[in-house]
Amino acid sequence: MKKNLLYVASLTLVMVLVNFSSCKKTSSNYTPSCSGATKTYSADAAPVFQSACAGCHSGKYDNYSGVSADKSDIRSKVLDGSMPQNSTLTDAQKNAIICWIDAGALNN
Length: 108
Ligand code: HEC
Fold this sequence. Notes:
Number of helices: 5
Helix content: 55-70%
Order of helices and strands: HHHHH
Bound molecules: heme C
Structural class: mainly alpha
């Protein structure tokens, strides 16, 4: 009986360790904080797209239809930090984009 318990305990420990190390690999994923006023395109998201994305994605992420067509791709690349290329967004800028998309990516 005691041996069994020890076995279960060590299995659990191994599982926790495996989980922990697999979590570490994706820990660059940002967790947005969307409390407060609902984010809008014109006041929140568009200024970030203009300043941080449109330089490389001109004609695409400098207008509503271009951004909304790619919203799920944009969302995942901002969350995992792969965009903007060669630079980083502040948490406030990430929230502006992610929370606006999560609120429906409206043209508001
Ligand atoms: C320094 C230039 C640069 C900046 C700034 C930049 N990107 Fe990109 N982006 C690229 C390049 C180059 C690619 C294509 C190659 C790749 O996928 O890595 C790309 C690809 C993408 C893609 C994949 C779809 C596609 O059009 O190929 C998305 C989505 C994207 N970028 C979103 C963004 C967002 C959102 C921002 C601003 C927060 C941003 N990018 C800022 C250079 C940039």
